[in-house]
Design a protein that fits this description.
2 copies of one chain form a homodimer. Chain A is of the alpha/beta class. Chain A is built from 15 helices and 12 strands. Chain A has 3 domains: 44 residues, 434 Repressor (Amino-terminal Domain) (Orthogonal Bundle); 143 residues, Response regulator (Rossmann fold); 127 residues, 3-Layer(aba) Sandwich (Rossmann fold). In chain A, the strands form 3 sheets. In chain A, strands 2-1-3-4-5-11 form a 6-stranded parallel sheet, with helices on both faces. In chain A, strands 7-6-8-9 form a 4-stranded parallel sheet, sandwiched between helices. In chain A, strands 10-12 form a two-stranded antiparallel ribbon. Chain A is elongated and about 85 Å long. Chain A starts with 6 loop residues before the first helix and ends in a 28-residue tail after the last strand. Chains A and B meet through helix 4, helix 5, strand 2, helix 6 and helix 9 of A and helix 4, helix 5, strand 2, helix 6 and helix 13 of B. Chain A binds a DNA duplex through helix 2 and helix 4.
DNA sequence: ATAAAAACTTTGATCGTTCAAATTCTTGGT
DNA sequence: ACCAAGAATTTGAACGATCAAAGTTTTTAT
């Protein structure tokens, strides 16, 4: 195959100079219409394509976003970041940008990788996930003037309003509040909550959504709410183990709201063993598991999250990294999630946390 | 911040020439040891980093793999490609390569994107997923000498042995065979199979695994097997709908092997409504859903798949794209999956396919 | 008609690296 | 000592694009 055509070749065919070809590509408005058409025809004729590397070398722009992909985000809710990645890739593509992945171990490792990618002009800006208060990564990025946006609030009052730290997040409290209010609307009163142990930025936020709905709509006070909630580490088994005693204390709840689908599934299991297989339960994240078992859940609307991230990074229209400082109010986006109500495919789950792992138990026929 | 240091700066500090610095970086063996050390010290002192774009422009190598990420691979089994992506990114990183994502609509759109990325020297090689017989993408890639490897067999005898078409795949038949044999070992005899409608390369392959185990280990013949299997489109509901009549025809099966976790979950649902809630069922893909509900499944070992893909592309040691033709036997890898046996968290699933989607049914207490 | 302004186009230099070929420095055999 | 062969290093020229500034043509105002 012959050498790929360059601007020079196009210029020759169109009888113009290199620069004019470049202008047609990058600032068409400065070129006279007739000339532009001639150049465009030559581009088509030769099948010319811009060489991205040469362009990058000169402009120091790569039209590429970097995002870290962890080795394996297993578990039920692990797919959230993957879904975000899909949405981000798609939205970035619409703006003519691409997404480059990298891995790293630990915050320092990530900083090293970012630094490398940045110096090599490989990546223009970074998207970080799961940031926390005084995250060394964000501090480094700000100090080194590397454009970035995070999916997730920094969870510190000071960082949170820092206009240099662009962030997008899902309004977890709004999600659990919507779930709780929906349950209240359908007649529920004794609504339990299963959360993550405090402190957890995301977890505490979601719990507050349930609390505020219970308080505002039902007039419950702190004392009333006190025993209605319980916490557990993420996981189906942990959820089940935490909910069982809660159900012993509150034998006739109306519903359960959970901080995650994993815990919700655990709650379903526990409810089933307690003979409450029809108990309405709402999870969070709207994972495939929730869809599969017919669990109501809160959908994070990751398309909106991705769109928000790009908007902060690139401006609402353009496709160039915005270095300009945004005003505090403009430096972040809080996406309101959507409640997805499913009619449960009712699974009278039977909790066998103590079951053996031995295979071959196909003769069993158990029922609570 | 001052200008980033270049080879020139390093050269000055180390009192050598540009090229020597370049050699230290790219072919250390041609540089005298003492000189090399001097240069290396200068590199560290200045914090020099190679500019990837300049290097790419000159060498036309990018140390980057491209892979298409579809807008949204929803559903239970959608996560397979995401897990593969995680593994690929990690393995690529170990070889100093990065992964770039792009989206495209349709095969022609993907070809356009590949062509663009390739011409721009953005990407050295591509990883394709879900290829089929006479896939226009692979034909184009071969015709245009673009290095690539596919995750998934081409499913055509001729392509399959084409040494120009590198591929890695999971031996689905081995997976279902192992599942079936395991069930046989535990005493099962009447083992049903739920597959995808034919023709489906992957689906037919997996069905053959069940068939061969039934034939070889139990001596069943075609006629015996004929009514023991059923097909359904991918989906929990579809699986449930297909398995119910099967269970009516075979009221006392010993186990069910399924082509996917979605169908397996559907089968669980159907089995539960038929009063067979303890029936051993094996799915395929080992998705989070399977883990969550305690469903046995076949794990694809995506780390091995990713490793195999990179080995074919880059050779077993190096990190450069191998243009060399491999011999037919060396041009592909078939990964043997692993059977994951779980003690079911027994879910006497209750099939309510006809349930309304109306919310507010929290008062229901149903049981089959 | 003419100068000034605006619109458009071209020319050289440059981004940071590696290639290819030329040059200098070592080493060893006679 | 000397020369050839090899090892080590350097030099000039790309790679393909854009920037900055200078040149040309066209339009507008007087």
């Amino acid at each position: 195959m012959a050498q790929l055509p360059t601007v020079e070749d196009v210029a020759r065919v169109a009888s113009v100079s290199r620069q004019t070809v470049s202008n047609v590509l990058n600032s068409p408005h400065v070129v006279k219409a007739t000339t532009r058409e001639r150049v465009e025809a030559a581009i088509v004729e030769l099948g010319y394509r811009q060489n991205a590397s040469a362009r990058r070398l000169r402009t120091r722009k790569s039209a590429t976003l970097g995002i870290r992909l962890d080795p394996m985000a297993d578990g039920i809710s692990g797919s959230i970041l993957d879904r975000f990645l899909h949405a981000l890739t798609e939205q970035a593509d619409e703006r003519g940008m691409r997404v480059m992945l990298f891995t790293a171990s630990g915050p320092q490792g990530e900083i090293d990788q970012i630094s490398r990618l940045r110096d090599g002009a490989d990546v223009d800006a970074f998207v970080l996930t799961s940031t926390f208060h005084r995250d060394p990564r964000t501090e480094w990025l700000i100090a080194n003037d590397v454009p970035f946006v995070t999916f997730g609030r920094p969870w510190g009052i000071d960082d949170m309003n820092d206009p240099q730290h662009l962030w997008v997040d899902v309004d977890g409290a709004a999600g659990t509040r919507a779930a709780t209010e929906h349950l209240i609307d359908t007649g529920a009163r004794r609504i339990l909550y299963v959360g993550w142990p405090s402190p957890s930025g995301t977890g505490d936020d979601r719990r507050r959504g349930w609390e505020s709905a219970m308080r505002d709509r039902l007039g419950w006070n702190d004392a009333d709410l006190d025993g209605l909630h319980v916490t557990a580490e993420e996981g189906v088994v942990q959820g089940s183990a935490a909910v069982s005693p809660l159900l012993a204390a509150f034998p006739a709840p109306d519903a359960i709201v959970c901080v995650s689908d994993s815990l919700a599934l655990g709650a379903m299991t526990a409810a089933a063993s307690a003979g409450l297989s029809g108990l309405p339960i709402v999870g969070f994240d709207n994972t495939p598991v929730a869809a599969a078992v017919g669990l109501s859940s809160v959908e994070q609307c990751l398309g909106d999250v991705a769109a928000g991230a790009l908007e902060l990074l690139l401006g609402s229209t353009g496709n160039d990294i915005v270095g300009a400082d945004l005003s505090p109010g403009e430096a972040h986006r809080l996406i309101t999630p959507e409640l997805v109500i499913r009619s449960p495919r009712h699974l009278p789950l039977f909790d066998r946390a103590a079951a053996t792992n031995a295979p071959g138990n196909h003769e069993e026929r158990e029922r609570p």
